[in-house]
Here is the input.
Amino acid sequence: MPNQHGAWAMLVTPFGFGLVLAVRAGTAGGWLVPLFACWILGYFAFHDASLWLKAAPARRGRYVPPLLTYAGASAVAGLVSLAWAGWALAWWALAYLPLLLPTLWLASRRQERATVGGALTVAAACLMALVVRFPDPRTLPGSDWLDPVLVSGGLFACFFGTVLYVKTNIRERGSRGFLAASIGWHAAATLLAGLLASGGVLPWWWTAFFAATTLRAAWVPRLGWTAKRLGLVEVAFTAALACAFVLG
Here is the structure.
């Protein structure tokens, strides 16, 4: 089982946001149940594939059984969701391949925690909001696509900012460059959200949320918090974001 606890929020939140969008648009259906199973089990398989790639040849055998188990179970769930929702759902694979293959290559070089790898995996996770909303990606251009795309982009801004922020508290603690990048990313997200809100494109709570994360990114690295405390605070931020989205 994956031990990256922060990944759970990045897996579940975009799917949940996509579900809300699908319900509001009247496109939600039972096919989302096997799709969610495929998504979670697929992450398990991806995690084990990464471990297999970076392991020494003598140790790779231990990862083969879970990799095959999770990959097989994910494939079965995926076939069920395809048969239920329509085979056009498979077109989304074209968007996922360029996001996931480079991260597996980074894992093979033991660089899976590189910032670019984090950006790619976060992008793959946040794209799920669009998959849930548009089971046939070919219908996206001619539909009411702006709000779902902005939601997916807002989630990417949030979760990639979290990647930078967590690095400033753990692996890159004391690095002025990473601290500046983290604060700058969150400040830019706040500014962009404010500009979109002033134009009536986004609700103002997105701006308030990113402003709060900017303060967090600037202040918390000074406090020397443990990983557990960082995680609990992130749960609170994610819950606040989800509540604002559902209620807003």
